[in-house]
Each structure stands twice: as C-alpha cells, then as structure tokens.
Amino acid sequence: MAATSNGKNHNLGEAFGLIAGSVYVLLMAGWCMFVGIIPLIAIWVVVQNLDYYPALTLALVLSSPGIAAGFALFRDQPTLFGRASKRRARMLDEGYRPPDWIAGPYVAPDDTAACIRPYFRAFIRLLPRAIVQGAIYGFFIFTFSYSMQIMVKLGFGAVMVPILSICIIFLIQSLLVSLVLVVEYPNAKWYAVVKNGVLLSARRIYMVVISGLAVFGYFWGMASSPIITGLLFTGIIWYIVWASARWQADVLFEALARESGDKKLIELYTGDSEKPAGGGGGMSGLFSSMSDYRQ
After folding, report:
1. Nearest 10 degrees: CA dihedral of 62, 68, 70, 74?
2. Which of 8, 75, 92, 269 has the smallest set of CB atoms within 10 Å of its CB?
3. Which residue has the higher pLDDT, 261 or 178?
4. Within a 10 A sphere around the Cβ of 202, how many other Cβ atoms?
5. How far is CA 30 from CA 99, 167, 176, 234, 246, in A?
6. What pLDDT score was predicted for residue 69?
7. How far apart are the first and last CA of the chain?
C-alpha cells in the first residue's frame, strides 16, 4: 500500500512539475515575444485605431522577426510537448541528422527551461528572411487597406469592403504560415515561401478563424489592459496562433518529407515511417518542388 501511495505521489509530483515547467516556458516565451514585437504593440497601444493602417502595417513588418523567433521557440522547446519536437529529440539521440534544407533545433532537446537565449539567437538568425516576408505581405495588406479606404467613400464601393476585409485577414494568416515555413526551411526561396503561405492559408480553413480570434483577443486585451495581457497572456495566445499556422503548414511538411523518400524524415513529420514516398495524395504536385527548399 505504501509503495502504491509513494508511486502515486511521485506521478502527481512529476505531473505538477511538467505543468509548472510549461507555464514558466510560456511566460518566458511571452515576455521574449513582447520585446520582439514591441513595434506592433507600441503602435497599437498608442493609436488603437485601424485608420492608422500605414503605421500598423509598417509595425507588423518590423515585428515579423519577433513573431518568427517565437515560432522557432514553440517549435523546439521540449517542455511544450510538441510531437514533432519529441520525435526530433529522439532521432537526434539515436544519431539521425535531418538534411541541411531543414532547420536544426533552435532549442537544445535536453534544455527544458531555455527561452531567452534561444529566442534572440533565432531572432538574429531569422531576421533577414522574416523581414522579406513581412515586407511582401505588408505591401499587399497596405494596398488592400488603402483600396478599402477609397471604397468606403464611394456609395457603390461599400459592397467591396467585406471582400477586402476577408482578403486582409487571409493575407495576415498567410504571413503567419509563411513565417512557420521560414522557421522550418532555412534555404527556401522567398517566392516559394510566399506562394505556399498563400496556398496553405486556405487549407484547414477553420484554423483561420481560431488564429483570427486569438489575435483579435490579444490586441483587444492590449488596448484594455496592456500590462496584464502583455505579461500573462502573450505566450499562450501566440502559441495558439503558431499551432494554428503550423497545422496548416503540416500539409507541405508531410508532402516534402514523402517526396524526399527518407523514411526517418517521413516519420519525423507524420509519425509513420511505413508510408512510402509520394504517398501524400498528390500534395507534392500542388506545392513547390523540393528544389525551392533545398537549393
């Protein structure tokens, strides 16, 4: 009886430790992201008005590396229970090294508390490519926003406002998916990332709603209570945003893994090493070829 009781207490203590560790990592990741996306937060807290879309768009571009660095942290922090990160850690322990067209771990697989250094290392590493993606999408977001501003002033143009609004929402989601791809594929050509970001944002479309509600809730919270929202909720909300975009990008991850023919790589992204290469149901043909990622 005593042994059973001790075993239960040990399991409860271990579970509590895992939960506490996850809370700590999410808080630390959130504080890092708060610093990384400070241009966007600062502009929004000051203006709190979508009429200032040029400034908000520029702030989004400047904040793209901070968002990408947060996604890199969520991708590999072992405390956050990601299935792919667990498989990657196990394979690294077994001596397997993924090909160089896939990014290595941004966080050491055995470092369950690392956040600050990995975040800012990822920020520097991802800065150029994330800025490029932010600038491309920022241009189109600005263009659609400007068009919407003109349409509002025209009586017959009001019917276009909902359509343009939906386009802007999808552009923002496409940027988030593209940043997930930037994190995953260090050699990917910018136009392949943009093309696939747009295509993938329309896959598993319900994720756009989840991501949109999370982003809306975050900036509503920043407008009403910036200190509490920034310190306590940045990590968990952006983790939801990352998980939504990552789920959409999984379609491409699996397709490229199958196209490579590497069983270990297929297992890494699908959890199943038995499915043959090219078994992605034709998805490889829909997206960019591997040459756009491998160079």
Report:
1. 170
2. 8
3. 178
4. 13
5. 31, 28, 17, 5, 18
6. 97
7. 62
